Amino acid sequence: MPVTTTLPDEPEVRPDLRTATRRPRRRRRLVIGGLVVALVAAFAIRVLLGDYTFTVPDFFRILFGEQLPVSTFILMESKLPRAVLAVLVGLALGSAGSLFQMLLRNPLASPDIVGVSLGASAAGIFALLTLGLRDGAVSAFAVVGAVAVSAVVRWVAGTTGGYRLVLTGVGVAAAMVSVVQYLLARSSTWDVQLALRWLVGSLNNVPWSTVGLLAVSLAVLLPTLAVMSRSLEVLELGDEAAAGLGVGRHRTDALLLVGVLLTAVAVAAAGPVAFVAFMSGPIARALMGGRHSLLAGALVGAVLVLLADHVAAYLVPDVVLPVGIVTGAVGGPFLLWLLARGAATGRTG
Amino acid sequence: MAITTTQLLDRPRSTSAAGPATAYAVMLGLVAVAAVASVLIGSRTISPTALLEAGPDRTVLEVRAVRTALGVLVGVALGLAGACMQGLTRNPLADPGILGVNAGAALAIVLGIAYLGAGGMTSYVVLALVGAALASVAVHAIAGIGRDGATPAKLTVAGAAFAAAASSWTVAVQLVDQTALDVMRRWQVGSIGGRSWDVVVSLAPVFAVGVVLALALSRTLNALALGEEMAAGLGRHTTRDRVLVGLAIVLLAGTATAAAGPIAFVGLIVPHLVRTRTGSDHRHLLPLSAGYGAVLVLLADTVGRVVLPPSEVQVGIMTAVVGVPFFLLLVRRGRMGL
């Protein structure tokens, strides 16, 4: 008899518990699914619409090798590499930004704000203009620059995250902009497109080789990140708590290095596209109901770059603005709004 | 017996070993040396005797004289503006470049050229002043939202964000409007070369008003340095004081930007260095910052001419080269009350 009095309670409790654990997971699946749909839609908008439109059947016919006059050239040499590069750059910057913000527990600490993007840019343009290197070598220099800048920032800011890190980054970023401007001013031919690409980030006139190089780099880096990010939930609790749970500081450093590399390869391909890394994380987090997610951050980044590039290309008739102008013009106010809301001041080092 | 407010405020906070008279003499001497160096040294170094005889060297000297005058003007304006800003916001990282004031001025000029049909130095100055004013109000308003008010760190980040957004818009307008691009291109990095006397003459009135206003406000800044509540307790109209100091900053930073484009870090470094010698009494800090601002700009410009021949490193880049390590040192030493 006493047994029957306790038993009926259990079936009442369990469904609640189950729904409680299931709901976030369902939300996660919904958000990721929604973002993938948004990404496909944005890609379709970028490729199919604009001043030269394609129908969907035409798109696939050209893609599978059919030669249509003019259309084939515009799609294969202009629109498609641009859109694919936008997706890749967005994925790289979005995931790197979310990773930084998560590990440093500071929404301001994204690679573009702490100077890593501009470090990569300065080293890349040095390789390009002063040493006369191309493609892969430029990317290698960008990686070296990004790593060097993050080492400097880390050394100056100490181990704390918070404002000291951000302020250091602001200073280093200012220095890197000066370096880029100096190198550009010194080069014998003042090339506006080149300047725009390395100062603000641009997808104009990219060759397929650049896209391929970035794709190969990401094919290595993103799976590495996915494997390593399993310990992220623990690291998010803070260094000490993570150490207590058996995840050491070296894991944080290794993950940050992956983030730096992702930023560097993206910058080498398209320049320091402003604020994409910074905006993706908070947007993804808001969509996920306050939870961090690298995948969502990466997808948001890709959607952002695609849409920004579409706006940049068709906002002003006859002028193709570089994508970084649009993300900068939108991202600056976003950062100010985040500051005004006080979201960024919650945690200071 | 009783110490009056005025006596309290006028009491020197710290005395430099040599006393103020020597400090001013040294400052003026250095300004003179820097100015002479700026006139004589360059890709073509000229002996002083060339002044006496007509010839190509004399023409070069005249061009360099304009450049030197402009350097003095810009340096004085930036040094004063930086010192006023650091006093007003009690923020050791304050600088017209870092807080986005210069970027706001640049954006206003570009918009004016592209959409209001502005042309000529006078209209640029007006636009720069409007832009500088709007930018400083916006940055301070945004940083001031929230419980802890406008902390140095929040101001700096808000300034950097504002500058980033404003420069994006600036580039966008330039790409759309060819005239704006042509005017702005030589202006982008911050340079005092290639200007005529007209520029100096048309900037002089605004500059003079700004300098006089700033120097007249040195006691006000001393009072404000005690903190908002203390200053109010001493009988100051803190709101009026703040508006006046803000006006001086806008006049000075706007003039400097209109003359030379965005030059950062002069307003940051100079007051800090001066403060280590004379203490934080604004009655000495302001004039000395003005003088050393001129010294820094002139030296940066002169060194930039010869450091990497045959090309020339613009003064804005030179000040960043010196300024960024300094900025990082300040952050590293944690002297901004974090």
TrEMBL record, chain A:
Membrane topology: Multi-pass membrane protein
Membrane-spanning intervals of the chain: 30-47, 83-101, 113-131, 138-157, 163-185, 206-228, 254-281, 293-313, 319-340
Biological process according to GO: siderophore-iron import into cell
InterPro entries (alphabetical): ABC_BtuC-like, ABC_transptr_permease_BtuC
GO terms under cellular component: plasma membrane
Record keywords, A-Z: Cell membrane, Membrane, Transmembrane, Transmembrane helix, Transport
Superkingdom classification of source: Bacteria
MF terms (GO), sorted A to Z: transmembrane transporter activity
Pfam families: FecCD
Locations listed in the record: Cell membrane
Family: Belongs to the binding-protein-dependent transport system permease family. FecCD subfamily.
Name of the protein: Iron ABC transporter permease
